[in-house]
Amino acid sequence: ISQFFSRLTERFVNGVDVLMDTFWRIWTDLLDVLGIDASNLTHYFSPAAIANNPTRALLLIGAILLAYWFLSLFLGFFFYLLHMLFGRFFWIVRVALFTLSCVYILQKYEGDPEHAVLPLCFVVAVYFMTGPVGFYWRRNSNSSLEEKMDHLDSQIRLLNIRLSRVIENLDRGSEQ
């Protein structure tokens, strides 16, 4: 059984590596289109390079904002889609994705646990961002008070109908 799970986690880690490599290649191609050399990003972070060429700083800030925007769009759409697909069982999917992400990171940095801290913090942050403070719940909080009252009114009507059916069934059962 342990050999099965070790092979399963190994295949899972390899699959995620291929997915991350694909995303990285798309991102580097996008940076190349913007005129940023993606093979040497540390050069753009040095203070001397930014002081000598302020346009690089603007390009770097633009690339960081673009990355944040793409990441937030992707995560918002992905978890909204998962919420639409799984409905009430979305929390199970969130826990499963969180667990698989932690397994991936711990398996990837098995020999060097100090390097696993930052990715684990990122995974925990994403887990909490997709919770009740996430995109889906914020989207529903913008509805007006009248819509919320109408929704509560319809819920009360449904509960009254169900209660009357239960009472009718109890009355029929006691008469027999």
Unreliable parts = none
The rounded Rg comes to: 25 Å
Number of β-strand runs: 0
Largest pleated sheet: none
GO cellular component, one term: mitochondrion
Transmembrane segments: 57-82, 89-109, 115-137
Keywords: Membrane, Transmembrane, Transmembrane helix
Protein name: BRI3B protein
Tell me what you see in this structure.
- This protein is an all-alpha fold and 176 residues long.
- The chain has 2 domains: 1-98, no CATH class; 139-175.
- It is built from 8 helices and no strands.
- Helix 1 (2-34) crosses helix 5 and helix 5 (90-108) runs antiparallel to helix 6 (117-129).
- The radius of gyration is 25 Å and the shape is elongated.
- It starts with a helix and ends with a helix.
- The model has no long low-confidence stretch (mean pLDDT 80).
- The chain crosses the membrane at residues 57-82, 89-109, 115-137.
- Keywords: Membrane, Transmembrane, Transmembrane helix.
- This is BRI3B protein.
- InterPro entries: BRI3BP.
